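Dear Dr. V.,

Thank you for agreeing to look over these. As mentioned in my earlier message, I'm a first-year student in the group and I'm still getting used to reading structure tokens, so any feedback on how I've presented them would be very welcome. I ran two proteins. I've put each sequence directly above its structure. The first is here:
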Amino acid sequence: MPTAGTKRKSRLRLVGSNGHWQNRAHFFAVASGVMRRILVDHARAKRAQKRPDSRQKVVLEESLAITGRNLESVIDIDRALSRLALMDVRQSRIVELRYFGGLTAEEAAEVLGVSLKTVNRDWSVAKAWLYGELNEKSPAT
């Protein structure tokens, strides 16, 4: 769970970053990025407290449930998303919006100003790439 200080900083980042939202979609786009940073910062802080000896297989799902067992997965996904952004920024943003922001495909399409078909195609490609990237790093069980 993020600390009160982390929550306060994040709230300030979100409110202080602009304060003048173009529309609902713009707000959720910014909120998704902030949520990603909050979750990754939290996972890194927890990892610093105790270093696990074994790594778990990472599964990318549309809904994110952060528990003590999968904090390392959040960091792995963040790193993989950064690598994906070097190849395809839109695919990376779609994953961030859907995975960290909890947006639907329709909402992501609105945020990015692209068609639903484009979001669905990029979502499928990005999930396949991330699956390969993340599971390549996890040892076979």
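The second protein is here, in the same arrangement:
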Amino acid sequence: MANARYTGGCACGRVRYEIAAEPTRMVNCHCRDCQRASGSAYVPLLGFERAAVTLTGEVKYYGVTSERGTAVERGFCPHCGSPVTIKPGARPDAFYVTAASLDDPGMHKPAMQIWTRSAPAWSHIDPRIPHFETRPQ
């Protein structure tokens, strides 16, 4: 995919992706599941249409139930443990990557912050980015 705009992968390089599309959304998710998965206050995510994504390497997925009650599959490299992808059960045509997995994480420009009601008191929520206690309706 020579025209891919977004590339990335895991820390050891065994999982790679190329995405030949613009993101459908860029968010910082503060839900408890994202906090547990990242080991931090939130996960910065970029969403894409699944058809635009080429993924190579072995990805292991584990399923959870999101704060809104829908199924989510979190993908990680089974060799280095890096979180790389998220597949939302409510939207099988969508595919998310973590901003930290991008070759250039500076490409993440969050348009909103979601599930801020779950943000820990020590977490800074940038007031310049629209935020929602749960998710936008």
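From my reading of the second output: The mean pLDDT is 92. DSSP finds one helix and ten strands in the chain. Does that match how you would interpret it?

Kind regards,
E.
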